[in-house]
Design brief:
198 residues, globular, 4 strands, 8 helices, mainly alpha, single chain
Length: 198
Amino acid sequence: MAKRIFDIFFSFLGLIALGPFFVLIAFLIKLTSPGPVFFRQERVGKDGKIFKIYKFRTMVKDAEKKGVHFTTPNTDPRITKIGFFLRRFYLDEFPQLFNVLKGEMSIVGPRPEIPEIVELYNKEQKKVLSVRPGMTDLATLEFLKEGKIMESSQNLYQDYTQKVLPEKLKLNLQYIENQSLVFDIKLIIQTIFKIVFG
């Protein structure tokens, strides 16, 4: 209950505080490339429930039809000019505060994956679906530069599912075992620090 109250309060506060920046970002996205302001994609949430995640669009219109959609190297030609900037400072992720407010996500929790990736989980790994997915967690901190890591990949699907994903899930399970409001606050502070100072 305390975690949900925390999520509602800070997601609502965040949306109010970031409102003017959302308007500016929306304007820049529309100014620099055709297509919608927001990108919505199906993700798997708590107890396997499907929901649509909100992000600012950082790629060309209909990008999912033109390449992979489970990870994005920084060199991906589908990324727009403003998209590079938004991804650099993770500003594209802030619309997920709407998902948090709606109760589909939490501020802190395992990052939600697309259905086809979740189908690969084994029984132990599926425990990550016992909690609400989040905007940041231990795996986020470890793979904050995933786009850079994947630049050298010759097979994105194989490298992501066999190398990156198992490590993410280990960290997700570790978070679940140690979750607390104090731990969540610590992870939020660490995430902000790492984004700002690298």
